[in-house]
Amino acid sequence: MYAQVVIETKTDYIDSLFTYEADDSVKVGDIVKVSFGKGAALKKAYVVAVSEDSPIEGDCGVPETDTDAEPPKNKKIRIKKISEKFEEYSLNPEIIDTAMFMRRRYLCRMIDAIECFLPAGTASKRGKIRRPLQGSEEEIQQISELTAEQQAALEAILPAITAGGKAGDGAQAGNTASDRLFLIHGVTGSGKTEVYMQLIARVLEEGRTAMMLVPEISLTNQIVERFFGRFGREKVAVLHSKLSAGERYDEWQRIRRGEASIVIGARSAVFAPLDNIGLIVMDEEHETSYKSDKSPKYETVEIAIKRLKAFEGTLVLGSATPSVVSYQRAQEGIYRLIEMKERYNAVPLPMVKTVDMRQELRKGNRSILSYELSAETERCISEGRQTIFFLNRRGYSTFISCRDCGYVLKCPDCEISLTYHKSDGAAVCHYCGRKISIPKECPECKGKHIRHFGTGTEKVEEYIKERFPGVGVDRLDLDAIKTKGALNKILGDFKKGKTQILIGTQLVAKGLDFKNVGLVGIISADVSLNIPDFRSAERTFQLITQAAGRAGRGDSRGRVIIQTYTPEHFAVQTAAAQDYAKFFAQENRMRRLLAYPPYCDLCQLMFVSPDESVAEGTCSWAYKKLKESLKKSEQNLVFKPQPAPVKMESGKYRYQLLVKIPKGKRSDMAQHIATLKKIITEDKRNKKTDYTMLIDFNPYSLV
After folding, report:
1. Is 548 found in the same domain as 587?
2. Residue 537: closest CA among 613, 596, 482
3. What is the pTM of this model?
4. Please, are residues 578 and 187 in contact by the beta-carbon 8 Å criterion?
């Protein structure tokens, strides 16, 4: 018998399958050790196919001498034997099939796709079982009768769950029909989580497994406590990158052994080694964090759908602000749309007021808070209710400039403006993390008037503490949660009422559920509008709506105040009116006219090199090569090379070209790009040139 394997090595030059002789015990998904290349050391490899047939002459086997060379044609190769099997754990055919799908879909290396499914860390040498969130509480919820909308959602989805079932060995199952793909469009506080939990309970009754995915690790603990209370600790496993490597390893093994039937986690939890998956839930499905920004640059929803196909499982997406792409798919019948328009507690959605900050300036108010937001905060404090301030900019000031000549302090490695962090006493690059001391004089004109401009969450925190003395104030952003346990403490103090005012970035806008929040103040609704990206209006609408949804989740109606310099923008107006349908209609019309997603696919080809001339030159060369491979009518789909908006990052120059792919043509264009990738691999190999090409289909950021 013969096995085709993927060698565990990070190089494009040998990103192919190699054939070894195997005994009858070897199966797809096994991890083995093989002799590879000239060295004596064994390499780990992953079995992706087995066959009784001998490889034909010229087959891509392992040459005896030079493994990097193609075997001579019409010459029989002496096939090496698999040396041993890795016994600690293995994968399964469904996982291997999904990894191969990722390779085709995202044009990544096979080993990069396979490694997504592997556990981090190793077994404890002392045999200790490392369980995350041991100190988490169990939130016992008293479930009253479901609302009519919750009941209707359950009744719409349950038939798909009860009709599903494991098909064969997983990898050979048929396609998932559209009647197993659901999008719940439910306003904030409509009770979507209870629907998810009851669906999962039914899946477990069917003897199957489930995943509950959330967009941010910060949301995991709140969900975990509810699931612990409902299903018990032993049935629930947690997977996300903030766990220690040992904790992730032990949780992975519990899942692989079938000891946990529910997996909760962020994006990477979609790769959990569950078998017989009956349901995957993606809460807050619109969040950009569901798109990987590292290779493989996968879409979580696509991996979820692919995995569910193997088991005839059900996908449920949920959001108060669905992405334009998802909502359009629902309009086209790809997803079945379920609407939940009322809050479960029958309390009306919060009252929303927009404040024009241009008028505040005319009135002489130059502070961070408008007169109205300041007064509402005082009232909220006097009523014993809590306030959330949202600003999607961390740090103290957004840039540092010389008032004499206008020079702006930039990162020497990334060439972008540095953000002043008062707590660090330094200017920080938010791309590479580099910290630089604040100069006492201007590097350009030697002037002494170095000043900080703009407002970040640190400055808001300082101002709020001065403005409302004696009030418990805390901040939730990436800088505040660097130490282990900091996140849980911040959220725990707010939940217990120790913190009366919480200031934060988008972390506070994503699904947090606190009953005593009476007021949400959106400090600047314009931050995301100014990003040069076709999704900026969508992102702005989502952030405002989600942040506003944190108010009034208890028994009393909440209030929201939106501060903006562009109150006339349709994204701000529709968010203030909490009118998703109107926003979607206008945004979707624009996408259709400009042929942006969901009416096309985009592909970004990024060329990165420490030498700017190499990055620019190879990008231009690739542009010509790609155009030459296309029909004349398709050549206008490839846009001319240009520097990336962030031209330099971590000391490397970045040039890009964009490809706009008409609907239904992604596979064809992917073949052309895959051919280009092979040409580039050979070019780099022959010329020993130092550059990298990165491929990203439908990037969520073009920066």
Report:
1. yes
2. 596
3. 0.89
4. yes
